[in-house]
Amino acid sequence: MLRASAAIANEKSFVLVGSQAILLLLDEPPTELLRSTEIDLYPALHPEKSDLIDGAIGAPSTFHDTFGYHADGVGPESASLPKGWMDRAVLSYVSDVTAICPDLHDLAASKCAAGRPKDADYVRILLQHQLVTLDILLERIGLLDASKHDLAHILQWTQRRAQEAFP
Fold first, then answer.
1. Do residue 7 and residue 68 come from a single domain?
2. Whether 34 and 82 share a structural domain
3. What is the pLDDT of residues 66-122, one digit of tens each?
4. 111 plus 138 within the same structural domain
5. Distance separating alpha carbons of residues 87 and 19, to the nearest angstrom
6. Residues spanned by the domain of 75
7. Which of 15, 22, 30, 54 is 20 to 30 Å from 41 by CA-CA measure?
8. Backbone dihedral region of 84: left (phi > 0), alpha (psi from -120 to 50 degrees) or beta?
9. Minimal CA–CA distance to 107: which of 46, 9, 7, 36?
């Protein structure tokens, strides 16, 4: 997927912001976290090229029909990441392509900010498998942009997921 995106966008570094970034963060992610068929990414230096990726290997494409998964060309604004996330980012290399992934706590904080049912499942599983700790996750949520997010609501939402993870 990265090599195809690199060829399409003529870029060599990408930011992966969706749930499937876990494929590059963990050697053996829990199978429950591998249900998604899309990888959300954008070219690190030229995010505006995301549309090229989306058009060529997005959901309604021959690529998706052939391989059963696709790229969602997104932009930096598509994921709410905590302040300083790039300082904690994990770099992975696939051939000559660099993948920049938020660390697992930053990725989880982004999921908490989105707060969709699928995000609740994702965060709950991360907590159950002790891949993230609640204390660090709550700290990272505190680093989200308070002018764009109701942090108190996100913190409560996250606490509920933790309670569900450990009934």
1. yes
2. yes
3. 888 889 999 999 999 999 999 999 999 999 999 999 999 999 999 999 999 999 999
4. yes
5. 20
6. 2-103
7. 30
8. left
9. 36
